[in-house]
Amino acid sequence: MSVLLSSSILSADFSRLGEEITTVEKAGVDWIHIDVIDGHFAPNITMGPFVVETCKRITRLPLDVHLMIDNADKFVEMFARAGASCISIHIEPDANIHRTLQVVKNLGVMTGVVLNPGTPVHSAESVLHLVDFVLLMSVNPGYSGQIFLPETVERVARMRRLLDEINPKAQIQVDGGVTAENIKSLHQAGATIFVAATSIFKYPQGAAEGIKALRRAVE
Ligand code: DX5
Ligand code: ZN
């Protein structure tokens, strides 16, 4: 499977959001990652459907919406209507995760289930047949710029084995602290979609060079 890079706008300069998105689009990023945080499920309060709608007007790239919120079921339709191409939902706060994922699937957008670093890989087993991808967090959710948790590599390998049994077409996405130093080992373990905020928008030589460095390291 080919590698997809999803650029998280959490580290973009919001006073120039349009330009920032155009820069990464021109530099060949595959998806735009939008981190929705409610201050309950995860610390920090970030963006809502309005930002998704704004991004939709700026870019043709798929919008990869990562919901770090309680009661995701109440909001998925709103995000789909705002223009999300993928919606990923955390397993931890959702007692009805099976139903929420089905709802997202029925909205006609790609579906992901997300696991925090402390959530056992096997806990997603009974919903893996419903998803297009599994997002394994490689930091605890809330902020960009955190340090990559190295145990993620082994978790990716374990999740890949589980998916090969249950849903071989599903991909693995990794989010948090992804850099040119760790992307290759994550890919070798079975991840194919990589989210990056700091390694792109805060790259010292600029976002376009950050994207090149990630691609060079993995391809
Ligand atoms: C963390 C978010 C991530 C974050 C990644 O809660 O889900 O998408 O923006 O940022 P970096 O790449 O800086 O770790
Ligand atoms: Zn994210």
Q: Name the average pLDDT.
A: 98
Helical content stands at 25-40%
Q: What is the fold-level CATH name, i.e. the topology?
A: TIM Barrel
- The dominant shape is globular
Termini separation comes to 11 Å
- Number of E-type strands: 8
The run of helices and strands is EHEHEHEHEEHEHEHH
Give me the side-by-side strand order of the main sheet: 1-2-3-4-5-6-7-8
Explain what you see:
The chain contains 8 helices and 8 strands, in the order E-H-E-H-E-H-E-H-E-E-H-E-H-E-H-H. The chain is an alpha/beta fold. It has one domain (4-218): TIM Barrel (Alpha-Beta Barrel), CATH 3.20.20. The protein has an 8-stranded parallel β-barrel with strand order 1-2-3-4-5-6-7-8, surrounded by 5 helices. Helix 1 (17-26) links the parallel strand 1 (4-8) and strand 2 (31-37). Helix 2 (49-58) runs parallel beside helix 3. It is globular, with a radius of gyration of 16 Å. The structure holds D-xylitol-5-phosphate (DX5) and zinc ion (ZN).
Which descriptors apply to this entry?
219 residues; alpha/beta; TIM Barrel; eight-stranded parallel barrel; 20% strand; globular; binds D-xylitol-5-phosphate; binds zinc ion
Topology:
Blueprint lengths: L3 E5 L8 H10 L4 E7 L11 H10 L4 E6 L7 H7 L3 E5 L6 H10 L3 E6 L17 E5 L14 H15 L4 E5 L7 H7 L3 E4 L1 H4 L5 H12 L1
Parallel strand pairs: 1-2, 1-8, 2-3, 3-4, 4-5, 5-6, 6-7, 7-8
Bound molecules: D-xylitol-5-phosphate and zinc ion.
